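Hi V.,

You were right to ask for the full record rather than a summary. Here it is.
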Amino acid sequence: MTSPSVDTAVDPLPYSAYDSETCSIARTLALIGDRWTLLILRDLSNGVRRFDDLVTHLGIARNVLSRRLAALADGGLVTRTAYRVDGARERQEYRLTHAGRDLVPILLAVMAWGDRHLSAQDGPPAVPRHAGCGERVRISVTCEAGHDLGDRPRLRVEPGPGSRLREQR
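Predicted structure:
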């Protein structure tokens, strides 16, 4: 079922009238929405790429890491590249794809939220900085016209071309 042709500025349907499973947040969370997956993405974005290094750094069980990496590869977020250390068998290294790198601002937003609301008295455990100038990185919400929406953005969510009305039960 597709959304009807409705002028939402004049006669808006409530947000709850639309199917939440078509939501981009729901679809994204189906792929990356567990603790281990986000931590794997964090480590990959920070240069920890080899399976054994990920196991050691994360403290994750090998079978759990294998499943999460396979799901990330199947979802197009990481690629596998073979490497071999002299005298050892071939192993895999994992790198973020373009789609995986697109998640870095989300990881930074989660990090910033944790720093604001969950940090210990002595401050955040890591500080992201711009490699070009050394200044701290901050996450901001802007509209396409370039307006910074600030800490308490006022948003209006409108149905997009992929929205569907919820089926009545």
